[in-house]
Amino acid sequence: MNDPIISINGLNKTYEGGFQALTRVDLSIQRGEIFALLGPNGAGKTTLISVVCGLVNPTEGQVVIDGFDSVTHYRQARERIGLVPQELTNEAFETVWNTVSFSRGLFGKAPDPAHIEKVLKSLALWDKRDNRLMTLSGGMKRRVLIAKALSHEPRILFLDEPTAGVDVELRRDMWEVVRGLRESGVTIILTTHYIEEAEEMADRIGVINRGEIVLVEEKAALMQKLGRKQLTLHLQTPLNELPTTLQQEALSLTANGYELVYTYDGHQDEEGHGISALLATLAREGITFKDLHTRQSSLEDIFVDLVKERA
Amino acid sequence: MNLHPVRAIYMAEMARTRRTLLQSIVSPVISTSLYFVVFGAAIGSRISEIGGVSYGAFIVPGLIMLMLLTQSVSNASFGIFFPKFSGSIYEILSAPISYLEIVIGYVGAAASKSILLGLIILGTSSFFVPLEIAHPFWMLTFLVLTAVTFSLLGFIIGIWADGFDKLQLVPLLIITPLTFLGGSFYSIDMLPPFWQTVTLANPVVYLVSGFRWSFYGISDVSVAASVAMITLFLVASLGAIAWIFRTGYRLKP
Ligand SMILES: Nc1ncnc2c1ncn2[C@@H]1O[C@H](COP(=O)(O)OP(=O)(O)OP(=O)(O)O)[C@@H](O)[C@H]1O
Ligand SMILES: [Mg+2]
């Protein structure tokens, strides 16, 4: 699949004070995917989204959205985009219905009460449609922002930390909404600090740190490539030290010699000293075990490693 | 041009007026009525006619101008300042609309409000003094041009202001003094010669004079000068707004 709906080329952003928030960012977002952008606070996630959506002027570089340059053909480019900002911003005195209808008109679409109704229902806001925004809870306000972004049927949806401040149950509901959107063909770019969210939702993951994209990878490939696995064998009888045939870096004894820990990644199997080789050696040495378990490192571990490494 | 966004902004702004009906419409009407009581009835009875017009009637165009200027500036500046302040402007800036459409929506709404207000005050004043309108076409032209021009100015102030204090600053320090000194309540030739000359540097003088001419056929400066001045203002404001949007001044970092 090579049909980018967004291509970002050589993007630089230096803010007025001279702070460089983005450094030579090149990024392609594939049509119909869910792309998760991860990075520590201040990495440049919001800045990147803001440039794409036309809220921040780029210092250098170009963004093409569905074939339309975001500056010279901003109408065509922007009408495809829905943006849910990170900060909660609302016209406090407006009602939910009015503010969502306003967004649709603002994006050049004729009124369509049926669509607004559908959006509000999908976000569990229907009962609140006549409430003023200031009477809503924080999580509801965030859902109103999502409803506004969906009001004009965008092909691309940016979610800048959509689930910050949203309770667990609602977060799951929101994931459902996002999945439903993806099924209907909407491309979704989300930023998040909840790694489980990216792990759960994303097709691809990008990591940005200090304004530079340090990694873009299919989630599955990333997990496999970087995801270290650990096999822990609970031994029948403790060992004082490893026999010489087992002296290798990937092996270590813990828990007073009761546990043998083998750390490996996706490649070692191919090189001939994977798990089967290990088990064969153990059998030859007469080492028996009563239990075993494996653990795969999460995206979170990978992420922390990556950002620490580059810092 | 796509009309949906313009309509959306315009209607949302007008809805805001309805929500704040009291402060948008009722309070200017009350304060104008107070001017009539104080200047027209109490003081005016001691002032002789000016150019054949009773003092009470003489101040009507000036009063309408005073309200028109201050209300246009405050409506338009608040209209754009508030979304900027609350952050909800992200939506306007990310929408597929041109700068012209944004301006037409906001400035159109603000100008509509002050035109409506001007007409209400005109109606109110007819209860206090006998009114005649010699040149209705020019009266409406001045009304509309002034409302639009000063709504544009208000829009600029709303974008420029980065706090509520600045939002009040320009109206308080510039617009109100200029209007009071702009011949709303007196004819320029009531001033000493030196101040007559100084006062000609005040743009509001031309607006009030032209507007009053459309009522009573009397003016302090030539009507052509009034029309030229307001056109100059309009063009300057449009130029400033074009520059603001081109550079993203105070809107896009
Ligand atoms: N308007 C601005 N002017 C100057 N610097 C800015 C501006 N906006 C953001 N920055 C700086 O740019 C950097 C990136 O900010 P950005 O908001 O893009 O980070 P982020 O990745 O979204 O962080 P977070 O996870 O906290 O939301 C930060 O160092 C921030 O201080
Ligand atoms: Mg951010």
UniProtKB/TrEMBL annotation, chain B:
It comes from the Bacteria. The chain crosses the membrane at residues 21-44, 50-69, 140-161, 167-188, 200-218, 224-245. The keyword Transport applies. The keyword Ribosomal protein does not apply. Residues 19-248 form the ABC transmembrane type-2 domain. It is found in: Cell inner membrane; Membrane. Pfam families: ABC2_membrane. PROSITE patterns: ABC_TM2. Keywords: Cell membrane, Membrane, Transmembrane, Transmembrane helix, Transport. It is a multi-pass membrane protein. InterPro entries: ABC-2_transport_permease, ABC2_TM, ABC2_TM_bact-type, ABC_2_transport. Belongs to the ABC-2 integral membrane protein family. This is Transport permease protein. It comes from Halomonas colorata.
